[in-house]
Amino acid sequence: QVQLVESGGGLVQNGGSLRLSCAASGFTFSRNAVGWFRQAPGKEREFVLGILWSGSNTSEKGRFTISGDNAKNTVYLQMNSLRSEDTAVYFCAASRHLNSGTYYLADHELYDYWGQGTQVTVSS
Predict the structure, then answer these.
(1) How confident is the model at residue 113, as a pLDDT?
(2) Neighbouring residues of 13: CB distance < 8 A, sequence distance ≥ 6
(3) 3-state secondary structure the chain
(4) What CA dihedral angle connects 43, 48, 53 and 56, to 10 degrees?
(5) pLDDT tens track of the chain, all 124 residues?
(6) How much is the pLDDT for 115?
(7) What is the spatial distance between Cα 28 and Cα 41, in angstroms, rounded to a whole number?
(8) What is the predicted pLDDT for the residue at 15?
(9) Which among 44, 53, 58 is positioned nearest to 94, based on CA atoms?
(10) Distance separating alpha carbons of residues 36 and 114, to the nearest angstrom
(11) Residues whose CB falls within 8 Å of the CB of residue 117, separated by 6 or more in sequence, listed in order
(12) Separation in Å, CA 18 to CA 43, 53, 77, 87
């Protein structure tokens, strides 16, 4: 049974940092799309950042960086300079193994597996 389990959320002050973890069981990250999404109360789920995971690559956009640890079968989302508008439940998602090609990582339909989410609250 495939499971993704997020952890690392919590309460942080404005300007602080958090690192979220997405640990996979039941499958091994190899060549998969891994995405982080978030959903704030009353809002639609939105894409944060994604990566076509190949074992050692990273993806960065502004204040957010995705990295991973193959030995732990875990992907991380580092979040810096957090703001109150970053408050949301954060979800990781992963696809099955993908062949080479171009993929739109923000498309939630790309992903086969989803975690249960972890709450991030940024206080001002």
Answers:
(1) 96
(2) 122, 123
(3) CCEEEEECCEEEECCCCEEEEEEEECCCCCCEEEEEEEECCCCCCEEEEEEEECCCCCEEECCEEEEEEHHHCEEEEEECCCCHHHCEEEEEEECCCCCCCCCCCCCHHHCCEECCCEEEEEEC
(4) -150
(5) 999 999 999 999 999 999 999 999 998 888 899 999 999 999 999 999 999 988 788 999 999 999 999 899 999 999 999 999 999 999 999 999 898 888 999 999 999 999 999 999 999 8
(6) 97
(7) 32
(8) 98
(9) 53
(10) 10
(11) 6, 39, 89, 90, 91
(12) 22, 21, 8, 12
Residue 122 identity = V
Residues composing the chain = 124
